[in-house]
Structure formats: structure tokens, C-alpha cells
Specification:
single chain; 1 helix
Amino acid sequence: IASAVEEQGAATKEIARNVQQAAQGTHEVSSNIVQVTQASTQTGAAAEQVLSAASELSQNASNLRKEVDGFLANIRAG
């Protein structure tokens, strides 16, 4: 009986150790998910800024094209 109790105690300690390791692993995964979420948010914000800058640049290029066309038309007209 004493041997069985000792084996059961050892098994219980092993289970407790495994549960602790699983909890630690779960905590690390959760932390990584938070970091990925934050990085995704930052990437999304950066993408919005790039899109806004590209849109503004496109508008400026269009305005410049109109100005150049007008300038050339005036030169041709004399």
C-alpha cells in the first residue's frame, strides 16, 4: 500500500508539473497574440498613412500636369 501511495504521489506531482508547464505555455502564447495584434494595428495605421500620402501625391501630379499643359498651350499660342 505504501508503495502504491508513493507512486500515486509521484504521479500527482508529475501531473501538477505538466499543468504548470501548460499554463506557462498558454501565457506565452497569449502574450505573443497581444504582440501580433499590436503589430497588426501599427501596420494598418502605417498603411493608411501610405495610402493618404499616395492619394495626395497623385492629386499633386494631376495638378502639375494641368499647369504644365496650360503653360505649354500659352507658349504655343504665342
